[in-house]
Design brief:
The complex is a heterodimer of chains A (119) and B (196).
Chain A (H helix, E strand, L loop, with lengths): L1 H23 L1 H19 L1 H10 L5 H48 L11
Chain B lengths: L4 E7 L6 H10 L4 E5 L6 H7 L3 E4 L6 H14 L4 E4 L11 H9 L5 E11 L4 H17 L12 E4 H4 L11 H12 L3 E8 L1
Parallel strand pairs in B: 1-2, 1-4, 2-3, 5-7
Antiparallel strand pairs in B: 4-6, 5-6
Helix pairs in contact in B: 1-2
The chains are: A mainly alpha (119), B alpha/beta (196).
Amino acid sequence: MIAQVFLTLLLLVALTYAWIATSRAPAIGVTFGLVVLGGLYFVWVPSHAIAIANRLGIGRGVDLVLYVWVVFTILAILNLHLSNRALLDRITELARRIAISDAKDSIASGKTKDDPEHP
Amino acid sequence: MAENCWVIVPAYNECARIGEVVASIVNRGYPVAVVDDGSTDATAELAGCEGAHVVRHPINCGQGAALQTGIEFALAMGADYIVTFDGDGQHSTADLDGMLTPLVSGEVHFTLGSRSLGRAIDMPWSRTLVLRAATWFTRLVTPMPITDTHNGFRGMTRHAAQFIQLRQHRMAHASEILEQIMRSGLRFKEVPVTVR
C-alpha cells in the first residue's frame, strides 16, 4: 500500500508535467500522459498487468511493465538525441551566418587585417 | 597559379603555427580565408596580420562546420577553385599547384591529397596504423579506391563545391565529404602530397 501511494504521487507529478507539455508539444504530451495513466492503472490493478503478461507469454506483470518502460525510455532518448542534433545544426548555422556576414562587412569596409574588437 | 582560387584554412587555437601557414600561402599569391572556429587564443589576430581574411565563428562549432563555413564564404567571394588546407602546418604549400592543376585542366572536379602517394614525414607508427585502418575501412564500405581518408588537403571546383553540405560538424566530416563526393557523381583523383 505504501509503495502504491508513493508511486501514485510520482506518477501524478509526471501527469502534471504531461498536461503542461501538451500545450507546447501536443503529440509528446498526450503520449507521455497516456503512458503515465497506464502506469497508474497497473499500480492499482496489478492483476490486469499479470493477466496481460501471461497472454503475451512474459510471465510476471512487473516484467511487462519493465519491458514497456525500457522501450519508452529508448524512444525518449532517441527523441532527445534528434532534438539535440537539430538544435546543434541551428546553432552552427547561426554561427556560420554571423561569421560570413562579419567577414563580408570587413571586406566591404576595406579592411584587410582582422580586428575582432571592431569588426 | 590558378586564377581565382581561394585557400580555406579551418583553425582552432592554432596561434603557434597559423601565422607561418598563412604567410606561406599568401606568398604564393593565393587569397586565404582562415575560419577561426571560436579560438580562445590569438589565432584570428595572427592570421589577419599575415593578410588572411578571417571568418570568425562566435563559438566553437567543430572542424567540419568550419570547413563548410569556409566553402560557403569562398563561394560567396566568387571563387572558381577552392583548396582546403590545415592550419597546424602539416601541409606544404609546395603542393598547392599540384592540387589545382587537375582541376584547372578540367580533368577532375575534386582533388584529394594523399600522404600514401606522397610522403609522411616523422609520423608516429601508431598514427600510421590508425590511418591505414581508417583507409581500409573506407575502402570496405565505399567503392572509392583511395589511399588516404583523413587528409585535410583537398581541392574542388566551384561547381563541385556546391555539392558539399557537411552536417558532421566534428571530425566525422572526413568520411562525410568522401561520401558526398561519391554521391555527386563527379570525377576525383588523389594527388601526392607531403604531410609533416
